[in-house]
Automatic annotation (TrEMBL):
It comes from the Eukaryota. It comes from Delphinapterus leucas (Beluga whale). The keyword Signal applies. GO terms for biological process: marginal zone B cell differentiation; positive regulation of filopodium assembly; small GTPase-mediated signal transduction. InterPro entries: DOCK (IPR026791). Residues 1-22 form the signal peptide. This is Dedicator of cytokinesis protein 11-like isoform X1.
Amino acid sequence: MEIQVMIQFLPVILMQLFRVLTNMTHEDDVPINCTMVLLHIVSKCHEEGLDNYLRSFIKYSFRPEKPSTPQAQLIHETLATTMIAVLKQSADFLAINKLLKYSWFFFEIIAKSMATYLLEENKIKLPRGQRFSEAYHHVLHSLLLAIIPHVTIRYAEIPDESRNVNYSLASFLKRCLTLMDRGFVFNLINDYISGFSLKDPKVLAEYKFEFLQTVCNHEHYIPLNLPMAFAKPKLQRVQDFFSFAVDRLTSVDSNLEYSLSDEYCKHHFLVGLLLRETSIALQDNYDIRYTAISVIKNLLIKHAFDTRYQHKNQQAKIAQLYLPFVGLLLENIQRLAGRDTLYSCAAMPNSASRDEFACGFASPTSRASLSTDKDTAYGSFQNGHGIKREDSRGSLIPEGATGFPDQGSTGENTRQSSARSSVSQYNRLDQYEIRSLLMCYLYIVKMISEGELPAY
């Protein structure tokens, strides 16, 4: 079919394909064949530079239809299932590569179908855990697992495709935080990040931080990370995010809030995950450090100019979220200052005033230590999910913490930590990195409440 003819009737063609897609049973090959036709149309539009018609279709014309038969499935369920089937067809790499490259279209269709389903079925008022079935949760998890190898293994073979699907998946999961059970979405995010390794090349490190930056750009990122009392077993459901950001900020166990521990990450998952990955990136080469530092700096700039949180108390609570970042600076203090400055910082008393603290760093002896053991235990976060570190991932572990690798691995941890500290001491940061890190530090010190720094 000529592309001009196809564009002229694009909404009709696409809607008819989606109608056929949902009215067929799983035993038929029709759903997969429909997906392949959709993929062909999407790729042709991109090749001709007409992808704006696809975006217009999603925004203005696409409206999921209710299933005509009890056996029929919804579009988001069927499309996610057929995407898995295509990604697992090892013999058809051309179709797989096209699906990865133009995955944004399919994720946008799935997201709009999910949102329409919640509104039309009046399920938007239900608790998040009851909005979608367990079967659909399993399908999304399987889709994520099917995508990971194409990003982490085939990145050199298909650079454009892997980068595109990395961004598209991040954007989709960011939308899922609005529509679905957030504990489940956190689990998906965690599983995806766990697919990356400490030995990954520069390009995969960039993918990882692009993914985190996209997810952390969620409009309600601050409420998703709000400080709260650790004694409370569950975050109660609150509809008004802004009121939640102001009213729910009560006293918090300072020992748990000030270190990048598993307990901290359990209750502040997104910021905890970002800071942990940043702590690992700071021990790597310049390009990876630059990417990680830029993500943190840009996020803090966004917080500082967010018109929703301009009150002094609101900015103070946001700064409190990032207090473990100060611990990261203390871990790398040898790379931030000269020898004379180090001596003066080490001599600074623990009772230093706010002004003194703003000019230097407190002694790092009481701060968290860096562990890089490959068998680091799972840290749990809200709704029972954990920050997994199965492949040479490190975490900042507070003194006296429990639930970490047994004593048999202590020697290996010590050797790895000592070796990394030795490398960090001589691998100095450049002026841009130091300036950016200190800008982040000054934002935290400036915005934090008067009573938090002495407690720290």
